[in-house]
Design brief:
five-stranded mixed sheet, globular, alpha+beta, binds FE2/S2 (inorganic) cluster, about 40% helix, about 160 residues
Amino acid sequence: MEQAFDITLTVNGTPVARRVEARQHLVDFLREELGLTGSHVACEHGVCGACTVRVNGEIVRGCLMLAVQANGCRVDTVEGLSDSKELEKLQKAFHERNALQCGFCTPGMLMAAQDLINKKTKVSREEIRAHISGNYCRCTGYQAIVDAIEEVIQMEAARG
Ligand code: FES
Ligand code: FES
């Protein structure tokens, strides 16, 4: 019999209380218990970045963190950042520059890219590539993704 724990956390600004199995991963909890299916699951061992979410302000792999480890934490997903409009400029730039095709990698890519935008006002293309190097895209060849991220960072820098 799997051990279960009661957890409370804040997901996209909303308090959540649930009983979870000890081995349930955070991304599975978000998808299956809360219906937040924007965070995707692919490799399930921390390689592809499809499951990227934010925990207490830092991006993490949702497939490498257990739901019980998020007890007491603030978790933000691509749905939350989209609703709050934090991702608005990036989403627009991705759309305009065709930085997505199948879209499977896109939620994780947006989460990683926004993390860089929030932390840096000036970056080289190499730094952008390094920052998203843990997020795999099988479709685009990355060029348009880097273009989109660079555009938003330059836009933000111009605003001061
Ligand atoms: S599904 Fe988590 S890194 Fe690939
Ligand atoms: S757009 Fe298809 S995997 Fe990135």
